[in-house]
What does this fold into?
Amino acid sequence: MEKILTKKSFPQWVKKLVSFKIYAPVKDGDFWSFDIIDNLEDIDLNCPLTVDSPKKIIFPQREILLEFSTSNEEGLEIKENLPEEKTSIIFGVRPCDAKALTLMDKVFSGDFEDLYYQKRRNSTILVGLTCNTPPSPNCFCLSVDGSPYSTEGLDILMTDLGDKYLVESLTEKGNKLINEAKNLFQEPKAKDKEGVKKIQAESERKIKRQIKDIKKIPSKLKEMFDSPFWDEESMSCIRCGICTYLCPTCHCFDINDEVASSSPLKGKRVRTWDNCQFPDFTMHSSGHNPRPDKASRLRQRVLHKFQYFVELYHNYQCVGCGRCISMCPVGIDIIEVVDKVRDYES
Amino acid sequence: MVNLEDLKEEAQKILKEEKVKYIIGYKKSPNSLMPVPAFIKNPEDTEKLIWDPTCIYNLTRFLVDEKRRKEREKNPDERPVGLIVKGCDSRALIVLLQEKFINRDEVYIMGVSCENTGVLDEKKLAIKLKGKKAEKIEFGKKDNFVVTTEEGKIEIPSKEILAERCLECKANFPVIYDVFLGDKVKKNIDNPFKSLEKIESLSGEERWAFWKEQLDKCIRCYACRSVCPMCYCDECVVDTINFAVTADTTAQEKAQKIKWMEKSPDLSENLIYHLVRAIHLAGRCIDCGECERVCPLNIPIRFLNKKLEKEAKELYDYEVGFDSEQPSLVSSFKDEDPEDFIR
Amino acid sequence: MNHNVYIPSVTKIIKIKEEVAGARPIKTFRTIFLNKNDFSHRCGQCALLSVLGKGESMISISSSPLVKDYLQFSILKMGRVTSALHEMEEGDLIGIRGPYGNGFPIEDWKGKNLIFIGGGIGLAPIWSVLQTALSKKEDYGKLTLIYGARTSQDLVFKEELEELRKKVGVHLSVDVEEPEWKEFVGFVPVNVLDKKPSPQNAISITCGPPIMIKFVIQNLKTLGFKDEQIYTTVENKMKCGIGKCGRCNIGKFYVCKDGPVYSWAELKNLPQEY
It folds into this structure.
């Protein structure tokens, strides 16, 4: 269903949702990031791209999987630690970040269901915001089958019409949220809907960056596995973790035991984000490392996103948010790398 | 004024003479105001080199990569690498030489003077331009920067948009070089530790609250460690694996590696990481400011290192990065060293 | 499916046997689940053994699926988790979750001759296939084992090998001469050329150090084996075991989920990065 909500009424709607945990972009010094909102009247949706993505709410950087101790009669007790079921709402989700979550869904379901991810995913309601203008100078969602007004993965999509929002509910969860404050919403008029169509057309036109002929990329990458191209491209990489940690589709993680006391043994098994750009990511206990240098790690990142994921799930594992480009300390630009791949002649 | 053509000519010369393997410098990025590091092997490509206020990166960092690459190769090319350095970068080089991490003959130093200005702080420029996009920025006359936007050129006094590190610059021209470009202009900084005054004026509790709030944000991307030229250890306190492992390392040794901090980005682990790193850099950090520039969450980690730099100066009269023969701070002592902390 | 994949089941170590002593020790462990469990595996599958407090390690299950009384693992002491396992005693508790991986397609091999080629600890992952084939001798053709290690001390399953000789062709080797060694001296791939197993109606299963596997495959092809007749297992660093943590991939395949068993026909088309 489609409804109109004036900007004045928006804080009142949010206040009605006080029984949920509410997340929205919050300003922190120079940048914006998703955080829990304490003062529900403070939500400002008019902001540039957040430095991190809503991935961190559904797939947190630290997740306690289980707790262990040797204090009971069996001698070893293992207790699982599933997340609580309180429903959360995330406001201001850009369509790229929502699409990223649908890609992560593919990874975390399948033969082995990841209960931690599923529980959080199912208890989160995503309220999106159309990108009237690109929130980042490096946006390129159109090139990777995305769009600034896509509804993929969202429960509600809001479009800013100046003094009001067109609020489009896409799922049962979305309908429920709107019904919490039915009286604040009105029916959209024809000119509201026309306004949205105009904004949608404009929003696509404003996206400046693109990867041309991206369909050629997966097969080209397959040929280039052993090419010296990766050595040259990775020369300036400093092997930090910024590109992967800020990426809304990257899902690699590590599992470690954190011991609080050794006798009697008590501790937690914790899952944390991990990073294929770190040199120890694939290092075996024996010291052998299948990816010992930056070239092989950069190659892994690009191939995973633009070839392997495509072969497995028929989607690029990139939503064109541009965060890796904006935040790379040495200016490595994935659009440039992929462009060079497409045009590469060995 | 530094003549860019002279720089390109010198670069072309040493490449043509095959004196160096390749040259590390700056080149323009097609999609951003900021440059990207350039690794130039062919004399024709020296055309791409640039020198302007955006050249903020500390390229000394890439000498660490070069060393690692040589260790992996069977018959490495033993020629030096050409490196374009500013004053601060050259001090990092001095530290690498002082610690014998590299030899003097492994690097051909092309020093460039910042003269009376320095490099740009992107964010300050964005605020100054109030939303207009800068396409190009160059060194101008009278210590101004000339910024080109779509509306034309504007002159801005460099002082207003200099990077914070440049306001406390101790070496505005390289202290070691094989070839020198620009003028050796003396730059007076009355208080090299001025930026610490605000934090130092806070009470102990306020400072603790400040750092707790800042370090809670940290996502342990290790960009600060990765960009620092001095963080070159194969066996780092942070990693769970010791990279110096060989086929002869016993299982016992591997099993006994101490886990100093967990991988979790908890406040307690983040604190240990940053504080230990600061202590490991005491007497080695030359305040190039790269760690703070690369942090995606704008955590002011430079202050931690700067505070230790100040203590090194005040307690031990130690200044790093000017003399490659001086002993390291933490592994030497003088008879006059203060002893009032010994009970 | 409400089962939480990350939670290991508590198991007790009922037997520990020292196979190889010295600088690179190998011990064989037998475990039973404390609580009733419907754990059942296929030959070639692995399980994640947990030493709570240290971590997890992916180890192949070397006992045959036909053995219901226990699970058997042979573990080389290599790092943190395996060292902790080596310090355990019979009766100690560890965690096990699994089984993971794709297993050998032994149903497709009925009626064929099976040639097992192992090096060092590499005998353990293929031992389950050998034991299963022995138990169902009528279903398979001729069984042969070509196995070697650096020295005679480094051979695993020494007693079991002596028993095995009575039933199948066993050809052992050591890398260098040693006193009282009467069998082949040289690397396992060279022993393969020496014993000339026939590719007629045969499947070859090999496992060992990567360099050995490379040359064994080369020599098998020289002897006339086709790519589809050669099977091996691949090793990579693993953490989740279920294809989600992104660590063990070779190309688009995750070794923990789509492997570790591959035929050479499949493996040669994957990026050679392991």
Q: What stands out?
A: Chain A has a mean pLDDT of 92. Chain A touches chain B through 48 residues (CB under 8 Å).
